[in-house]
Amino acid sequence: MGGNTASVSAKAPSVSGIVLDFLLQAAGVQSQKLIPKNNLYREIGFEDGCARLGWVVPPVWRDVERAIRLFNDLDIARGKTRFIFSGMGGSVNTIKALIDILGKKSRLRLFTIDSLDPSALKQLLPQVGDLRQTLVVGISKSGTTKETRDLLATLRERFQNEGLDYREHFLWLTDLPLGRQKVEEGSWRGVRFLPIQTDNGTDIGGRFTAPHTLIFLIPLFLLLGRDAGQLKTLWEEYLGLRHMLLPEAARRAEELATRGSDYYAVVLTEELASAMETWIIQLFQESLGSKALGFNPKTLAVAHGAVPKDFVSVDFNISSGSPILDAMVNMHLLQVFVAVLAYFRAVNFVTQPEVELYKRKMAEISSTVISRAEKTTLDGLRSIKLPNRLVGQKRFVEAVCYWNLTGVQRMNLQEALAAAFPDREVMVFAGSDWNHHSYQAASKSQDTLYLILAKHEYALNVEGISRKTLEQNVTTLRTIAYATYETLKDRAAHFEVDAPEERVHY
Question: What is the bridge-based pairing of β-strands 396-402 and 448-455?
Fold first, then answer.
């Protein structure tokens, strides 16, 4: 990728500065053999021999402008006022953050969907409104992400049932040409494709796609009202702040690596902590978790003054006056922080090998009848009793909910489980997020009890989508939940929760 790759630490030959130089040296190099053997990124910046450090150096403006213009000039993008982005984990988490930060100020309406629970579609589609004015953007680096493919096929059915040609309303972002080939094999021939990276490369993984790829830049461009001039100003300000603050990110990573901390609290404004929480958890826990003996980070995003006991703060004290600029700079600095911390810990931070455990289990049980779990209610969880072999001395309880978790349900679950486990720290997550941000770390974590929760009954009535399609989506959701439980059962309990649908007002 373009940009200035000159060393930012030449005047300060500290250990962290040397490591930062190593990171910059390895960035954009496609062959491990071309990186000196004394540079550990030769090993920890590659996945199965494929480079994954394309995110380190940002593209120059002319490359950003060219890529954005390529999108904006598509006939299927012209005139559209509503955009649905669908992907999993790092492919959608930063878009959620962008919508939280800028969505209320934009004349264009952006939405995301990453849950196979039919109630997610039931909630989404009335908000979107006129599908004739809607573009759906599917995001999958490999082109094989099952949940994304299933969601895009489900949305396509709705468009077809309204008499709309889906080829005029669907776009895929993927790695070309292999990702495109896989998508097309799923009956998507004739649909438009764009590369994820501005340079058409394939060396950036999902959780490192912000803010340097089209996964981030297209939604940002839209939320800025398709104003390329405003985007250019923002990009140039971002480049300047990033360059100035890189050494601080590396220095803080060295300091905390030396201290041997396992619990990290990323400190931001309250607005950014809320918007970026899921992305931050994935960046840390999927990059660092279950890869070094005895090292399994637990990560929070918190507002100033809210760092819990035993957690160390990661705070770059950025206050530019622009929340979106602060978010962009923090995203990149946190990625650099993780990369430098990984160097000191000798951890390959661009892979997520343990994630294959539940995916393999899914394949094993896909043709069998899934065992139904014990039924309970949200209130029933308040008095839940589990064997001591599961609870033991666990410090954390993570409830993972495989349905379209609402804010009210999350608060009720948090309250119920805090009552059931008064001496533990309770966290509640949607399964569509958790498997992508925390499963890697959970696979070898010993300090956390996992409650795997599915819905006892899922709604199977969404206008314009067949019951058969919705049943298939629910089966996949139950399969993911059960496979997750089966691979974590020595530290997990499995329940089906009677959680009635909530009425949503628009």
Answer: parallel
Cα–Cα distances in angstroms (integers) from residue 72 to residues 79, 117, 316, 378, in the given order: 10, 32, 34, 46
Q: What would the pLDDT profile of 189-248 be if each residue is shown by its tens digit?
A: 999 999 999 999 999 999 999 999 999 999 999 999 999 999 999 999 999 999 999 999
- Region of residue 400 (phi > 0: left; psi between -120 and 50: alpha; otherwise: beta): beta
CA-based angle 442:444:446, to the nearest 5? 85
Rg (CA), the chain: 22
82 membership: H or E segment, kind and range: strand 82-86
Of the candidates 13, 93, 474, the residue with the CA atom closest to the CA atom of residue 482: 474
Gap between the Cα atoms of 315 and 307, Å rounded: 11
pLDDT digits (tens, 9 = 90+) for 170-183: 999 999 999 999 99
Q: Which domains occur in the chain, in start order?
A: 15-57+230-314+322-345 (no CATH), 61-226 (3.40.50.10490), 355-498 (3.40.1830)
Tokens of residue 89, six digits: 């984990």
**How open is the CA angle 180-184-188, to the nearest 5 degrees?**
120
Quick count: other Cβ atoms within 10 Å of Cβ 504?
12
Token readout for 453 is: 């929760």
User: What's 339-373 look like in SS3?
Assistant: HHHHHHHCCCCCCCCCHHHHHHHHHHHCCCCCCCC
Residue type for position 505? H
For 450, the enclosing helix (H) or strand (E) is strand 448-455
Let me know the angle formed at the C-alpha of 274 by 58 and 494, rounded to the nearest 5 degrees. Answer: 110
For residues 59-68, b (16+ Cβ closer than 10 Å) or e, as one string?
bebebbbebb
Higher confidence at residue 1 or residue 169? 169
* Residue 275 contacts residue 269 (beta carbons within 8 Å): no
Cα first-last separation, the chain: 43
Nearest alpha-carbon partner for 265 in 288, 294, 235, 297: 297
Above 70 in pLDDT, residue 8? no
Q: Cα torsion for 287, 222, 56, 324, to the nearest 10°?
A: -80
Question: β-strand 170-174 against 263-268: which pairing, if any?
Answer: unpaired
pLDDT mean across residues, the chain:
93
